[in-house]
Amino acid sequence: MSVTTTAGARLRAAGGGANRWVVLIVLCVSLLLVALDATVLHVAVPAVTEDLRPSGVELLWIVDAYPLVCASLLIMFGTLGDRVGRRRLLLIGYGLFGLASAVAAFAPSPEVLIGARALLGVGGAMIMPATLSILRAVFPDRRERATAIGIWTAVAAVGAATGPVLGGFLVENFWWGSVFLVNIPLMALILPVGRWLLPESRGGHDGPWDVLGALMAAAGVLGMVLGVKRLGAGEGLLDIRTAGPLLVGAVLLVVFVRRQRRREHPLIDMCMFARPAFSTSVGCIVLAMLALVGLELIAVQYLQLVLGLSPLETGLRLLPLTFAAMAAGATGSYTLRRVGPRRMVGWGFVLTAAAVLLLVLMGQHDRPLLLTGGFVLLGFGLQTTLFAAYESMLSEAPPEQAGGAAAIGETSYQLGAGMGIALLGSVMNAAYGPSVASLAGVPASASSAAAHSLGEAYQEAERIGGPVGDLLRTTARHSFVNGLHITLLVSAGLLLIGAFAALRLPRVMECAAEGRREADVPAARRPEAPAGRRAIAPPEPVPAGRRPESPA
What we know:
Low-confidence stretches: 1-18, 511-552
Structural class: mainly alpha
Shape: globular
């Protein structure tokens, strides 16, 4: 017992030597699980639809509950970890993540699956900010921290790439619930290992934790997104079920902002948003994720339901997107120093818009070279944008507000992903549904059900059979492809808006911002700049590549 305790204490003393690299391995495994869970379900959506028969809104919530709940709670748990201990909160998140995975795997109804996905979001919100905070604590040297974040983001990208392939393999050979079971043995291993190896760390205790403010932020984000989802389901803006959440969410967020401005020790310093580079970077993150995740959910349905690919084949088709994103992340630091934030974000958006317009050429038949080329451009362009936007946002935040800036970045990322599914999903439904719902010769009940999704249209066509069933299937298939084209055009428009918004970013990495970020590096270790040239330090570790690009 004394030997084990001593060994654990030595490894937890992550102040130097190789110990912090052992800690990095544990943190990478933690992030790998979160990345896997964000992507592994998407190829299982048709199987879930066939088994549980969720409505269109329920299907959106099954996919969307995890990122939305996670986004709404990031600020709460990120600041709570500073008070109670990041390691402690991380271990609780491990346990909750494993429990929720077991419930999701054996969910008997859409409601239970939605609840389990929401619980996974709670666990993910505990894990994500804690891993970043611990990593920053055990790597005080900026150069080592950059290397650590590079390893960290690469592992997360591998998780994002592995998720669809692993999910496709499991769905083909077992059942859709098995995509959640993979979390349980990993959590059972990492929970005791993390308790033994990870160091405990806390932030500054310069004021009380604003519990009411954290609850306001969480409820406000959820209210706004719920309203957007209602709009996406086709409900009117004046409907109480739509207007109510939107109004409540907006009011709560306004009160939260006013409260933070008045408090001596706020959760988030709202003055950061007055800086154009910071607010623009946050907006670019939201736009990038809005385009990526919404498109990928629709792309998965296109690959499986229109082209007839298996879940495993679908996962393999999405691999080029994530590998391209990994390449963009690996070269992002060099590119950012060469071209600056404005050009990197702006041209990243333009490249992504070009990829989206290229994918408009998709039709009823498989064109693998076109899809591969489009996915490569899409992954590289979006990752380029995200990398530069995160670097610019973190550079604008003063050192004492780095935690708040990271929480805002995480929230923007997750919120953009959730809203992307809702917004682009609503565009898709609006373009797809009318022609199917009004199909002559098809019973009204079947047309109504078929208008919800292409999967339901296939089910109704099989039930009806004969020429009428064939007509319904063909019409739904064509309507889906037409709706996909319209959705791609809308997405391209949003991406070009992001490119124009990037004009507010600085052309180069400004010396003042860099000076703040170099404060934690001893003067003797800083590289000397050539005469007449401003020193530009390597960019702040950026968690951009850590995201599930597919959809990660």
